[in-house]
Description:
Radius of gyration: 15 Å
Order of helices and strands: EHHEEEHEHEEH
Largest sheet: 7 strands, mixed
Amino acid sequence: MIKQLEPNQEELDQLMEIWLNANLEAHAFVGKEYWLAKEEHVRELLPQATLYVAFSNQRIVGFIGMTDVYIAGLFVEYAFQKQGIGKALLAYVKQLSDELTVNVYKENEQAVRFYLKNGFRITEEANEAETGAIEYTMVWSREREG
């Protein structure tokens, strides 16, 4: 089940745990300290995004955060990855927009493959200032898919 969520404190704690663990798992090349340093800032920003959350047995197992047509993040709890939850969250927001944009680290090959497989194309490559890592800007459009 997927629904829009305005998180209470307990739900925000769950989202942050998923966010941190997913980033540490997927972005080891950036370093643990970077993500730990970002945690409080993300905790402040997260409720400002439009959040769509996936549940399993009334427990949050993944979420996608949107700022207009920009995917600020798509995160799935490790134990629930590769079960179609990320794809379902992405499909949900595709229904709400004609175009979506996301930034993905080049070294996060699993995420790059995921977005390419789901109709996104790489439109730009740049060095991300804070980490020095190469980041792709990827775009999906309904017009191109249809």
